[in-house]
Amino acid sequence: MELKQLKYFITIVESGSLGKAAQKLEVGTSALSQQIAKLEDELCTRLLQRNSTGVTPTPSGLAFFKQAQLSLRHIQYAVEAAHSSRLTGHVSVGFSPSIASVLGIPFMQLMSQRYPDIKIHLVESLSGNLTNLVNSRQLDIAIIFTQDVDVNWAVQPLLKEQMFLMANSCLLKSFGFDQCIQEGRIDLEKINRLPLVLPSQRHGLRKFLDQKVEGLDVNYEIDGLHLLMNCVSNLNLATIQPVSAHFDYLKTDICLLKVVEPELDRVNYLISLSEEELSPASLATKVAIKSCVKELINNGLWPSAELLDF
To answer: Which of 95, 124, 185, 233 would be 258's cystine partner, CB 3.0–4.6 Å?
Structure first.
């Protein structure tokens, strides 16, 4: 039995005619008749008596009509209760600096619109630090770049980011990489000729690069994204980062060259306490993060990011 069948039946009885009910419901008369026939088959009884002036409910139909009205009224009360009640609670969320640069503001805006009574504690830290906070249960939800978390945590691939070499155009030209600038791509052999600055090995990005690339020659290590990108922008240094790390520098002359041979894609994982342990506020926050990520990528606001199936 479907809710629309109850609605159709009630409207027919109130209208006294299949034709009038069809007009009110904006459905065809034949479709309306088919639904009532299915309802009668399911109940194994005749609900409507057809006559020359229209239709009237049978004794069984009249009894069903009263209870159907009551059921729809209760459903409407449930809908109103769902709309009027607000989720409350505290949720701790962790983003890496690069993720926070693109997702932080849209996520906070979405939460304030959807769930104004949920209090969010947003932690921006290195992926390695977030992993430690996750495993010590100081965070409810986080986006990190590894699956190396407690087995009781829920881990879900969220998105994949392409890695780019980022460097001042003057530096690239001084090494004779004008063609790379034109093509928008560069290989590892050329990257190793450049003075390279990366996060230290405690950083999730560095661990990822060390796993994917052998013999990467790193001249400087900086763990703060803001300082690292300022050095790339103002000094003769290059780095390897996802586009999300570049958001605050889009108006500068930093060049983004896609890393090829090998191509580098980093998976971002959405992790949380197991679904059974999550509070309703945390569940809502997790859904909001996924919704926000999906909207940003589908609208082209997260360049080079690919949404994974979730």
So the answer is: 185
